[in-house]
Amino acid sequence: MSLALFYLPPEHWGHEVCLDGQEARHLSQVLRIAPGSEVGLLDGRGRLGRFVVLKAGKKTVNLECRSEEFLPQPEARAVVALAYSKAVRRGFFMEKAVELGAAGIWLWQGDHSQGKLSAAAQEACQGQLVAGAKQCGNPWLPEVCVLGGGVDDLVRQAAEADYRILPWEAQDAVPMLSPTMAGQRGLTVYVIGPEGGFSQRELALLTKSGFCAVSLGTRVLRCETAATLCLGIHWWASQLPEAPPHEAERS
């Protein structure tokens, strides 16, 4: 869709709709889109619509639907469980996560996390995710989950995943993350530790719970770099004509 895109929550979707807040200001005051013009709306749950602007005010914009389509979620779904750290550039990562088609982002409290994960973190991510979706046209927003109970919560949350991947720099004799591991149909969870690294307790529990250890190379990567790299490999592998069988044992 080559139209200017705006976000409308799914519960507000309809034939005639109203944008307010930041989305309305962006349409009417920044882009100065006039009544009669067409724009695109996405709801973050797979729906894209073509709407005509009926009335554009400073605080609200009224629109009418001309057509809509639904894009199903990809079969190869990736979740990144990203440990909380003050040093992580979450805004950068959130936008890249949408661009690369992440199905979910789990923020978890690591034993070596710098600072305390707040329940408000989920809401804070929403604007960054929406910005990324509007930029790239992805109609699916990743679902954000805050896991304040540390690695124990993470293990429980990942129990039903098809594949569980543990990228960790301090390893020998483990395979590199490759297209034969990433991008498989079903749900894959990639767990990324905090800037302070995993604790031995966390590593023991993750390994015991079926997370497959992999390497991302010889360099120590920042959290957001490692997370983005995992999503990039997953997305690329999922686009291959025929995904090869998974090397790691299915848990």
Automatic annotation (TrEMBL):
The main location is cytoplasm
Give start and end of each Ribosomal RNA small subunit methyltransferase E PUA-like domain.
19-63
Its Gene Ontology cellular component terms are: cytoplasm
Q: Which reaction does it catalyse?
A: uridine(1498) in 16S rRNA + S-adenosyl-L-methionine = N(3)-methyluridine(1498) in 16S rRNA + S-adenosyl-L-homocysteine + H(+)
Q: Does the keyword Transport apply?
A: no
**Residue span(s) of domain Ribosomal RNA small subunit methyltransferase E methyltransferase:** 77-233
A GO term, aspect molecular function: rRNA (uridine-N3-)-methyltransferase activity
Its name, as the record gives it, is: Ribosomal RNA small subunit methyltransferase E
